[in-house]
Specification:
The chain is an alpha/beta fold. It is built from 20 helices and eleven strands.
């Protein structure tokens, strides 16, 4: 009897030692695969936003479909009855390869095919299903070493912590420092590392365990090669997208910056959207800057929101009576290029290194909220309202904040998208400004690179130049400030809109409704 009890005790001790050794391996695996799962969702959402715009839509659809197919994977896991470890390792190998090449597949589909949506949906469905299989299988494996209560608690705890880590490191570390392509390869390597590690630890419990370990290691080396040469891969695909010679690419925490060249034409793209062409940018920046400057009674202090390329500031520095220019641009990578890169310094005539210019790399909304300065002229040169983060900078609440920072007889101007391609969005911006300021005046110019483009002036009733003598005042200024494009004879036509761009009723854009973003996206879809 004593012998039987001792044998039972030894068996229990051995089982406890095995559990103590195995559980950490499995729980660490859960932590890593949970991190990878969320990273795949964020990665594909970000890439789709770069290519297609509309960040809310892309993130919502990607995460929604991912979650749905994870449910499909969880459901299918009940049909796996045996060899759970083998199935888990196999899934990690497949997931590592498919996920590791996910960015490559998406870049390939966008650059060389017309089927991006179909390919992205297929990729999401496969990845989601495989990710959905992981946790149920690991839970059942862990359950063979622990009680159900402990199993569920531990697996879900590590799963949620891994998800938290992913949501933190993706925007703060992976995207700005590695970019989308390298991040994709890195996530795939992590999945394959889980497969290789588990194959080694559970070698005796797996069918062809050595083969699984070796193939995992071999595939890690393949993805590592892709990781090392990822910038070359991205440049290859971007060459198909932009066609012109790519001189420069940067991935910041906020956007992908690309500069191209064709003959002497330099072009700046942010997230795939053209920001300027050096061949005709003066046709945009002269009306943006000099019209409000002509209508302002004082030039002492000017605020520029956006315009990190320094081209608007270049125009402002033609006025010797300016004492201070505050430039607010969220992306330091952009203002660094404006200050340091030879192409930008040539185009902006070193404007961002001028001692009159102060640069603030922060959100424009937050800057205005906390600012105590009063400005004679406020120039808004921000990207189009393609997502709520930008849409808030065209909202009634934002304009109300601006009004408090504007001199009593000062003037505001904003770029307002195209009155031809995005007519409702243009007039929505106009009406939103009109809901805050006493006097508004929209105007439009033709820029070959963009097409017909629009701006809106706004001021309080104390600014009589805008309300009564607009055209005459601008024409008088042009006598002392010769321009390449802006001439006295064309000024009256700037304030005339053709019938197909004529004013139409729109609601006011607010932080709550963000109706402008919806209108802008609708216009883009129609034209695309």
């Amino acid at each position: 009897m004593n012998t039987e009890n001792k044998a039972e005790e030894d068996k229990t001790k051995n089982q406890n030692k095995l559990t103590a050794a195995v559980l950490p391996v499995l729980l660490v695996s859960v932590f890593i695969i949970a991190t990878c799962g969320i990273l795949y969702e964020l990665l594909i959402s970000s890439i789709s936003t770069y290519f297609l715009g509309s960040s809310i839509l892309q993130f919502s659809l990607t995460i929604g479909f991912f979650m749905s197919f994870m449910g499909v994977g969880s459901f299918l896991s009940k049909y796996i009855h045996s060899k759970l470890l083998d199935q888990f390792v196999t899934i990690e190998i497949i997931l590592g390869v498919l996920g590791g090449f996910s960015a490559f597949i998406l870049y390939l589909s966008y650059s060389l095919t017309e089927n991006y949506h179909l390919i992205a949906f297929t990729l999401i469905s496969l990845l989601g299903t495989l990710i959905g299989l992981e946790i149920p299988l690991v839970t059942r494996i862990v359950h063979s070493y622990a009680s159900l209560k402990d199993t569920v608690a531990k697996v879900l705890s590590f799963d949620y912590i891994g998800a938290l880590l992913a949501s933190i490191i993706f925007p703060l570390l992976l995207l700005p420092y590695l970019g989308t392509m390298r991040t994709s390869f890195l996530i795939g390597i992590l999945n394959l590392a889980v497969a290789a590690f588990n194959s080694q630890i559970f070698m005796n419990d797996l069918i062809r365990g050595v083969w699984k370990r070796n193939i995992s290691i071999a595939l890690i080396l393949v993805l590592l090669t892709g990781f090392i040469y990822s910038f070359h891969i991205v440049s290859f695909f971007e060459q198909f997208v932009y066609q012109d010679e790519i001189l420069l690419t940067r991935q910041s925490p906020y956007q992908r910056i690309v500069v191209t060249k064709w003959h002497q034409d330099y072009r700046l793209y942010l997230n795939g959207h053209l920001q300027f062409s050096s061949a005709d940018e003066y046709r945009y920046h002269e009306p943006l800057v000099h019209i409000p400057m002509a209508l302002s009674y004082n030039h002492e202090k000017v605020l520029v929101l956006g315009g990190g390329d320094g081209l608007a500031v270049r125009e402002l520095l033609r006025y010797k009576d300016i004492q201070q220019i505050d430039l607010v641009d969220l992306d330091k990578a952009m203002t660094d290029l404006g200050q340091q890169h030879p192409i930008f310094r040539q185009l902006n005539k070193n404007s961002l290194t001028n001692k009159k210019v102060r640069i603030f790399n922060e959100d424009a909304y937050k800057f205005i909220e906390k600012s105590t300065d009063i400005y004679s002229v406020i120039i808004i040169d921000l990207p189009d309202p393609s997502d709520p983060g930008l849409g808030k900078l065209y909202s009634r609440e934002f304009y109300q904040l601006l009004q408090k920072r504007l001199a009593i007889d000062g003037i505001v101007v904003t770029q307002a998208t195209s009155p031809y391609f995005a007519t409702e969005a243009f007039w929505c911006i106009t009406h939103t400004l009109g809901n805050v300021f006493t006097t508004i005046k929209p105007y439009t110019v033709y820029v070959p690179s963009f097409g017909q483009w629009g701006f809106v002036l706004a001021a309080n009733k104390q600014n009589k130049r805008l309300s009564k003598n607009t055209v005459y005042t601008i024409q008088q200024m042009l006598k002392t400030q010769p321009m390449r494009f802006l001439k006295a004879q064309i000024v009256p036509g700037l304030f005339a809109f053709d019938p197909d761009m004529a004013e139409r009723p729109t609601p006011v854009n607010t932080l709550d409704t963000q109706i402008l973003v919806q209108s802008y996206e609708k216009s883009l879809r129609n034209w695309e």
